[in-house]
Amino acid sequence: MKFKRSEELYKEGLVHLVGAVNSPVRAFTSVGGNPLFIKKGHGSKITDVDGNEYIDLVLSYGPMILGHRHRKVRRGVAKALRSGYSFGASTENEIILAKIVCDAFPGMDKVRFVNSGTEAVISGVRLARSFTGKDKIIKFAGCYHGHQDSLLVAAGSGLATLSLPGSKGVPEGAVKNTLIATYNDLESVKVHFEEHDDIAGVIIEPICGNMGVVIPQNKFLVELKEYLKSKGALLIADEVMTGFRSKFGGAQELLGVEADITCLGKVIGGGFPVGAYGARNEIMEEVAPLGGMYQAGTLSGNPIAMAGGISTLTELKRQNPYDQFNDTAATIETILLETAKKYNVDLVVNRFGSMMNPFFTKGKVTNFEEAQTSDIKKFAIFFWAMIKNGVFLPPSQFEAWFLSSAISKRDIKKIAVAVDKAMLAVSKM
Ligand SMILES: *Cc1c(COP(=O)(O)O)cnc(C)c1O
């Protein structure tokens, strides 16, 4: 397999782009080699600039849930393009998408659209502070909530991949109201409430995908919600990754928990830049122009991006691929575990719906500390063998793999062949 054109573009890219990427998760720092440049995508597959084809398990880190260039999304966006790109005034598409979103999440009467997951979380946290009049926010180690200053501590994902404890350039003052707890450990939340009386709420990935996939154990989320209610604090569900992916109504629908504030991104725009935050009326009425919490955006609710979201979610609802996702993920899990056993490689697989990934470790992975026991050198070998056998994975042990509804039985067979070769390579390390 040749990567000549990717290598050329990488060198060119280094001149005017930082590390030739526009998001550090796309760099190949932790797996070695140069990042691949992608030319096009179709259905379950993407093709790089050297003409190599891959089954895509990155899917733009989640948004492309229907696979690439779905016909109906293309049609919806093309239609919107004919009417204009942005007006700085309201359009009907915003109302249509808002209704789809509010219908999907029972705890959401109103929604505000923004342009990214990061923006959704910045605003969701501000809203929790505005509504409660309190400043402190608890987050869990290993959960990623976008790149805003106050939440860039113990933030998993890209930081964990680059072995960074936090980000430079974040002033101490910006994180002084951030408290860290341990995922799946309610006691670690209670300790903070015993020490502080100004906690506005807890932000959580209801199914974590940013330290690799980590699943809430037993009744963790339900008990967390009950506890917060008893303390008058809010539960902020960061469903940027899980919204419309775990289930149409997100992880909340699946786990039977209703958050006070929900943040969305990724799938909601189907590949176009859309984020959103929403809550019941009483909370959303804090937001300007109804209330005193200011949040704005020149391109927010952009009609083209709204059209991408409307067509993606409409088709997703029609397809209802969630049972199929479970079956496919279970099949891939079996392939991974049986192949690992065949070659004597220690492996744990975590999965939830269409999110999954293996950890090269023993035992179980239920929090960030356990995720970090994974052997990232083994992952790097595995990653490159998968690439060379036609499967595109995130270049990091700490990112989830995603499934699209376009994946076929033939794709899964191809994945099985690649996993066999990759696990053999790992066993020879
Ligand atoms: C991706 C992600 C974000 C950030 O979204 P961007 O669109 O990258 O800004 C926030 N929270 C979670 C849980 C995410 O997975």
TrEMBL record:
EC class of the enzyme, as a word: isomerase
InterPro entries reported in the protein's UniProt record: 4pyrrol_synth_GluAld_NH2Trfase, Aminotrans_3, PyrdxlP-dep_Trfase, PyrdxlP-dep_Trfase_major, PyrdxlP-dep_Trfase_small
Source species of the chain: Polaribacter irgensii 23-P
Subunit composition and interactions: Homodimer.
Keyword terms of this UniProt record: Cytoplasm, Isomerase, Porphyrin biosynthesis, Pyridoxal phosphate
Entry cofactors: pyridoxal 5'-phosphate
Protein name in UniProt: Glutamate-1-semialdehyde 2,1-aminomutase
SUPFAM superfamilies linked: PLP-dependent transferases (SSF53383)
Listed GO biological process terms: protoporphyrinogen IX biosynthetic process
Family: Belongs to the class-III pyridoxal-phosphate-dependent aminotransferase family. HemL subfamily.
GO molecular function: glutamate-1-semialdehyde 2,1-aminomutase activity; pyridoxal phosphate binding; transaminase activity
Chief location: cytoplasm
Taxonomy, superkingdom: Bacteria
Record bears the keyword Nucleotidyltransferase: no
